[in-house]
């Protein structure tokens, strides 16, 4: 394989990754669950608001169920680690990127997608689940060994 072909393949894979992440992040739930209005308020200094304990636990639970689904498909992920602004899921062992993206989409579909308005993104060596520009997890849900 020539260097040019390898670069074209890498660019196509990165483009596919971005498209898959965008599709997962923007899909409407096929089975919308009744949602309670959040009691969280954004501060004037920061446009983010703190999620309730129940909302935070819903995100962490989805990440754990997603990890289990991926494990059944042969993708080994670390336990979800809740930080104040996101939930990290380390990729321990995974197939090539095109197969990994297909498995992410399959598990996302089977679980009913990430919770509404959340985003699941593939970053170098990890998956990140968060609510863009608005999420601070409840302090009681954040993993005690993390500080980000």
Quick synopsis:
The protein is α+β, with helices and mostly antiparallel strands and 148 residues long.
Could you walk me through the main structural features you see in this protein, from its secondary elements to its overall organization?
The protein has 148 residues and is α+β, with helices and mostly antiparallel strands. It has one domain (3-29, 43-136). Helix content is 40%, strand content 17%. It has helices spanning 3-26, 53-72, 97-111; strands at 49-50, 76-77, 81-82, 87-93, 119-123, 126-130, 135-136. Strands 2, 3, 4, 5 and 6 form a five-stranded antiparallel sheet that branches. A two-stranded parallel ribbon has the order 1-7. A hairpin with a 4-residue loop joins β3 and β4. α1 runs parallel beside α3 (97-111) and α2 crosses α3 (97-111). The model is unreliable at 29-37 (pLDDT under 50).
How far is the first residue's CA from the last residue's CA? 41 Å
Number of helices: 3
Amount of beta strand = 15-25%
* Unreliable parts: 29-37
Order of helices and strands: HEHEEEHEEE
Morphology call:
elongated
- Main β-sheet, in a few words? 5 strands, antiparallel
Work out the radius of gyration.
Answer: 16 Å
Structural class by secondary-structure content: alpha+beta
Please count the beta strands (DSSP E, at least 2 residues each): 7
Which assembly state applies to the chains in this document? single chain
Give the proportion of residues in helices: 25-40%
Number of domains: 1
Residue-averaged pLDDT, rounded? 74
């Amino acid at each position: 394989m020539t260097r040019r072909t390898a670069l074209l393949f890498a660019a196509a894979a990165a483009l596919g990754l971005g498209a898959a992440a965008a599709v997962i992040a923007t899909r409407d739930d096929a089975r919308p669950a009744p949602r309670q209005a959040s009691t969280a308020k954004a501060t004037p200094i920061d446009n983010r608001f703190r999620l309730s304990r129940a909302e935070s636990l819903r995100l962490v639970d989805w990440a754990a169920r997603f990890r289990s689904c991926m494990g059944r498909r042969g993708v080994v992920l670390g336990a979800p680690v809740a930080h104040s602004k996101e939930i990290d899921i380390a990729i321990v062992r995974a197939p090539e990127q095109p197969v990994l993206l297909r498995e992410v989409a399959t598990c996302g579909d089977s679980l009913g997608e990430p919770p509404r308005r959340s985003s699941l993104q593939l970053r170098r060596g990890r998956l990140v689940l968060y609510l863009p520009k608005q999420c601070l997890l409840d302090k009681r849900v954040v993993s005690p060994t993390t500080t980000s």
